[in-house]
Amino acid sequence: MTRELTSNALFSAFEIRSLRLPNRIVMSPMTRSYSPEGVPGTDVADYYRRRAEGGTGLVITEGVAIDHPAAVDNPRVPRMHGGQALAGWRHVTDTVHRAGGRIIPQLWHVGPLWGAMVDADPAVSMRPSGLWGTPGHTVYPDRYIERASAPVRAMTEQDITEVIAAYVRSARNAVDAGFDGIAIHGGHGYLLDAFLWESTNRRDDDWGGDLVRRTRFPVEVVRAIRAEIGPDLPIFYRFSQHKQQDYGARIAETPDELGVVLGALVEAGVDVLDASIRRFDTPAFDGSDLSLAGWAKKLTGAASMAVGSVGLTKSLRDSGVPEPADLSGLLRRVDEEEFDLVAIGRLHLADPAIAETIRTGGALPTYERKKYESRLY
Q1: Angle at Cα 321 formed by Cα 76 and Cα 281, nearest 5°?
Q2: In what residue span(s) does the NADH:flavin oxidoreductase/NADH oxidase N-terminal domain sit (predicted)?
């Protein structure tokens, strides 16, 4: 088992711009909320250090609030602005680098989902057309949906300009804090994704209408970040079909439509497309076994990353305790170069050395949500 996995493509090196990884295993972003007043402390640094020491090729931090007042509602989510927070991040990056690891932050603006984590006034939220989105299959409670569904004012041109500038400032802050690249959260119904989704973007100006115009805002964010950070550091971009508002929602009904969105993002400066789905190997479109990450790579030629219940038999939203899953299908897809990187979430909480566990053929842990999400292990 050890020899097989060591020679597998999963444990081959990967290089994108200046980022050089020893293997293809990535720690997926997971909100932990252990940064009081948005400031990551020594416990956060040690949390990420343990994953680097455990052999993970790349750590992507939990979502980090950009420098905008409506970015994230939870004060315990880390932010990428302010002297104390940036000093905290410098300690995090130094700690991970001393352990031989590489780390990038996921920049985050929740957009319409302001108030989903804590009780906060929905009127503060940034929404392309003032809409929360049509509720569907969701885990949010009725009381939140009722409150959040009330329309608020649509984003103005000034709002759009200010949010783009906030992304740029935060990306610069991240580079100055020693990160090895930038990740952008552009999925799940949050702000960037809200411009792509017809249910939340019903504008009829240059920022909405057809799919090309709905893509413009995330493209401008990427383009502005690329101009700020230069050509050396990579940009990862998380996208999804599903939304927190409705797990059945889609931004693309066909591969061609998906190609419109992803092709524009790659042209603007994205290097790695982080394809978020509840199960990484679910076929993205009828008539093909290709995963969402597989389609992202096929349509654009860019590197892609698979994520979603890797190593588990159940997705996050399914009931019951997920059992460890057979990895043979994952390894086959990596060997066949369907996608380039594999992001592992919950198993990284259960086992900081999950990369080494997989490499040596060890037993995968059983994930117990209450146990592993209640502390920084």
Answers
A1: 85
A2: 10-361
DSSP characters over 327-350: -HHHHHHHHTTS-SEEEE-HHHHH
Residue 321 has pLDDT above 70, yes or no: no
Parallel, antiparallel or unpaired: strands 14-16 and 19-21: antiparallel
- Which residue type sits at 105? P
State the pLDDT at residue 371: 78
Given a contact cutoff of 8 angstroms between Cβ atoms, the answer to whether 358 and 327 are in contact is: yes
- Pick from 296, 166, 181: which is nearest to 224 by CA? 166
Query: Which pLDDT score is estimated for 375?
Result: 78
Answer yes or no: 34 catalytic: no
Q: Which domains does the chain have, with CATH numbers?
A: 1-373 (3.20.20.70)
Distance CA 233, CA 256 (A): 29
pLDDT exceeds cutoff 90 at 128: yes
Residues 263-306: tens digit of each pLDDT:
999 999 999 999 999 999 999 999 999 999 999 999 999 999 99
Token reading at 40: 């990551």
Q: Please report which helix (H) or strand (E) contains residue 14, including its range.
A: strand 14-16
| C-beta of residue 323 within 8 angstroms of C-beta of residue 287 | no
Buried b (16+ CB within 10 A) or exposed e, 242-274: bbbbbbebbbbeebeebbbbbebbbebbbbbbb
Interatomic CA distance for residues 299 and 310, integer angstroms = 23
What CA–CA distance (Å, rounded) separates 50 from 279? 26
Q: Are 352 and 26 in contact (CB under 8 A)?
A: no
Distance of CA 100 to the CA centre of its chain: 23
Which residue of the set 47, 48, 167, 190 is catalytic? 190
Question: Looking at the chain, how many residues does it have?
Answer: 377
Residue 315 reports pLDDT greater than 80? no
Per-residue b or e along 218-235, where b marks 16 or more CB atoms closer than 10 Å to that residue's CB:
bbbbbbbbbeebeeebbb
Show Cβ contacts of residue 77 under 8 Å, excluding neighbours closer than 6 positions: 31, 33, 35, 38, 62, 63, 64, 65, 108, 117
